[in-house]
TrEMBL record:
It comes from Bradyrhizobium macuxiense. Residues 1-18 have a biased composition (Polar residues). Residues 1-21 are annotated as: Disordered. It comes from the Bacteria. This is Nodulation protein NolU. The lineage of its organism: Bacteria, Pseudomonadati, Pseudomonadota, Alphaproteobacteria, Hyphomicrobiales.
Length: 210
């Protein structure tokens, strides 16, 4: 009796598991590598390491404590569908401070603020004014920008805390060390779910990147 034998070809599609793993490693924030490898490594050296196909799986294993796929499990898109976590954090912060965004009408102040947080965050926050959290208005554009970044990252961190450890870590590794995402407060935990639901609905209309 003859037996037909076929070999499984590796997945070489543009969105294959290996492609997503490579994209993930290259998107990890350099400060994360510096703390695990050598704080004296230069930025160009870290970038070369991240882009080395030969090292990428080992680097991912180093930062994820070897929790990456080892038995053929697909490397799927992360909780943010591969989108920039800082962008998601700023979008959350924009909703959080939507009332302040609406009250900032000076052309000069708007120019400063949009230059710091981006037009998308500004318009997205105002569009979701009904979900705003902060009731205190901030009229200084630079202070408002800092608060949007802080509370937005904290909100993202609170949302990530509800996820499995590996999924949470995959997103945090793409942020620099020391953001508010690492230490959210109770108020962020209370608001995170509804805000991130709005953001994920927005991001889901775009193609995954990692």
């Amino acid at each position: 009796m003859s037996v037909s034998m076929t070999s499984k070809e590796p997945d070489r599609s543009p969105n294959s598991s290996s492609d997503r793993l490579r994209a993930f490693v290259t998107s990890i924030h350099p400060t994360r590598f510096a703390t695990r490898l050598d704080p004296l490594l230069s930025a160009p050296t870290v970038l070369r390491l991240q882009k080395s196909p030969r090292l990428q799986r080992r680097l991912a294993g180093l930062l994820l404590d070897s929790e990456i796929e080892q038995n053929g499990r697909d490397w799927v898109s992360d909780l943010l569908l591969g989108h920039d976590p800082r962008r998601a954090a700023l979008l959350a912060g924009g909703i959080w401070y939507a009332r302040s965004l609406l009250k900032l009408v000076s052309k000069k102040d708007l120019s400063i603020l949009v230059g710091m947080i981006g037009a998308e965050v500004h318009s997205f926050g105002i569009r979701h004014l009904s979900s705003a959290v902060a009731t205190r208005s901030i009229i200084d554009p630079e202070q408002l920008s800092r608060q949007i970044e802080h509370d937005g990252h904290a909100c993202l961190g609170a949302w990530l805390n509800e996820a499995p450890a590996l999924d949470r870590t995959r997103v945090l590794l793409r942020l620099p060390i020391g953001t508010a995402a690492e230490n959210p407060a109770a108020e962020h935990r209370n608001a995170a779910g509804p805000l991130l639901s709005l953001i994920m609905g927005h991001l889901a209309t775009e193609a995954p990147t990692v």
